[in-house]
Amino acid sequence: MNRNKRAVKAAAAGLAVLMAGNACFGNTVYAANQEKEETVYVKANADGTVEKTIVSNWLKNEGGAQEIKDESDLTDIKNVKGDEEFSRDGKSLTWQAAGNDIYYQGETDKELPVGVKITYFLEGKEIAAEELEGKSGKVRIRFDYTNSSRKGEVYTPFTMVTGVILPTEKFTNVEAENGKVISDGSKNIVVGMGFPGLAESLKLSESELTEDLKVPDYFEITADAEDFSLSMTATVAASGDLSEYGLDDVDSLDDLKDSLDELQDASTKLVDGSGELADGVQELRDACGTLLDGMNTADEKMGELADGIGTLDGKKGELIEGLNTLANGLDTLDKKKGTLKKGVDGLKDGLDTLNKEKGSLTKGINTLSAGSSALKTGGEALKAGIDAYTAGTGELAKGVGAYTAGTDTLAAGVGAYVPGAYRLAQGVQALNGQLQQAAGASQAQQQEPEADKEAGKQLEVRARAAKGEAENLSQVMELADGTISSLSVSIEQNQAVLDTLEDVQGRLGEIPGALIAGYSDTYQNYVNVLNTDISYLKNDIRVQKKALKAWEDFKASANVETLNNTLDSIGEGAAALAAPRAAADTAVSGAAADPSVLLAGVAQTVSGMAEASAPLADQAAADALVGGATQLAGSSDTLRAGAKQLTDKSGELQKGAKDAAEGAASLDGGIGQVKTGTARFMTGIETLAKGGAKLQKGVGALNNGIDALAKGGGKLQGGAGTLSDGIGKLAEGSSLLKNGTAELAGGGTKLTDGVDELLDGAGTLRDGMEEFDKDGIQELTGVFDDGVQKILDRIELVADAGKSYQTFSGAKTGMKGKVKFIIETGFEN
Prior knowledge:
16% strand, alpha+beta, five-stranded antiparallel β-sheet, elongated
């Protein structure tokens, strides 16, 4: 640690000396063309307070320019060497240099960046300078240097040097702190120096390495004075431009740090290497054991090898015989190579033919692919048709259900309708007969007014009978309305079913022949049922329409309400006829009309009804209608069964169509794969044909190889004798080798002992290198990193600050400059 402190102190002291030398002996600024050098003369009182400041500027015109531009804030500027003139615009100056250097001076009252405060002491007590004049005693003079030029924490590095001349006749025992006393016998020349702000810039007090290092910022003189008098002191201050002394370039120190880094890296590598060496020696020790085992095994196996070689030596006769057989076989192979070439040529010709005919195969595959696509399209269309067809069978089944329900209703209605119709017709006929007799009786009564009143009673009885028949007729007419409605609905439903069946019948031709052949029995049963149902429906509709017309005609001719009213009037008239004459006359005179007239009208109406109901009274027609309804109801069961069979089989038909469509699609996909495989097959044929050509060429090379092999076989046969001799020598050598392996096994034991010693040494080296790296190298680099590097960084900042301070009174942008201050103090000022 002390060594490091001394190194840092030496570096800082060297910096101070170099800065002092720079201030005392001046600097030369090298520039390409124009430079400016300033000298600031300060007249100060004996205590250092400024009285007047004069600045002298030297514009160096090394390029011989005719005109020099400068900037300055000085007043009372004048040319002190030469007659060159200038013009001024604010701070800007333009000199008509005519190729010459310019020397000018001016005055300023701006604050100085540096200063000196001088304090006087007599016999240890401070005293004013003017009071000290002529006194005698122990005198101390202190020069405190000040620096107000700073940027951030870094001061401009000014070096201040003070010179004082003390005559020996008045001053004795002269000493200096932070200075030097030089005596020539008649006078004492005292030179002191200080570096104001440098310690603060370098932060020396913040590091253990530099906390004891003192950089002076003052200068003191002590002497015994007799009749004290002091004419003047002179202090020179200059900014610390360190470039000429290399302190602005810390590469050497950086190199030192790089070397320390390299030393640390090397030390780390040595530590790692020593560890790896120890590990390697350990592996070597382990390997020595394996090697020793191997040597022993080799020695053991060498004995077995020697025995084997001895056996080989004994069997060499058989080996020579085998070599002769091999040579003979190679000779036979050489003779048969022509046959091999001929076969390969034939193979190549066949491959060439196959390659030429591959186009026909491609054409056939394309045709097959087109056919499979068409088959796929047809299968899809077939499936769509079958789907529509099966949907129709569903609708057919619904229609058949409605139809058969209607036939059942019709059959039941016909059963009630036929007896009622027959009874209606018989009643109308009976009513007609009664009315005819009543009408005849009424007419006879009018012709014979005095007839027996029994005739009137008879008429009344018959009129009542006719009235009863008419009431029965009213009930039958109510049945007629229901029957007409039922027949109309049944005809409409039957016609809808018939339309559906005929549509299905018309689409039978769309079913493919292949499907019909596959389901021939089902298809034929379905067609037979369908045709029978259509025939039944047509006949039923015809019979129903005929019955509907008869009922509608009858209903149109019958007015039952009018008939009843008329019969009531007839009854009243017949009652009047049966009464005594006087009463009859009274009754007749109050009647609405003549009974004979009424009867005649009613008879005519009923006669028309009798004609209209005649078809209803036809027993044969009624039996035929009942039989047809019964037959229609019976065929409904057949129709339902057929529709069910058709619906059930349509599922099979739909499945068959789906299987056919899927099969066609699968076939089309397979054809696509075949087509793809064919393309690959074609490529393979081409490759095979090319390979055939290469094979043909290879046969030629093979023949050449066979020739060479046959020749080699001959040489092998010729060398068999040499081989026999060599085997004999090998047997002798194997015996010697066995002796060598025995010695090698013995040396392996010694090697293991030596490696054990090497392992101990490698462990010691590894431990020593780790201690050296930790206590030596790492400690050294740690000290440099913690202290010296920080100081070096601060020195670099200080050097940069010194470079940047180039003018006091101003300078043109881009113009290099240098400035120094001369402060003169004295009692006379």
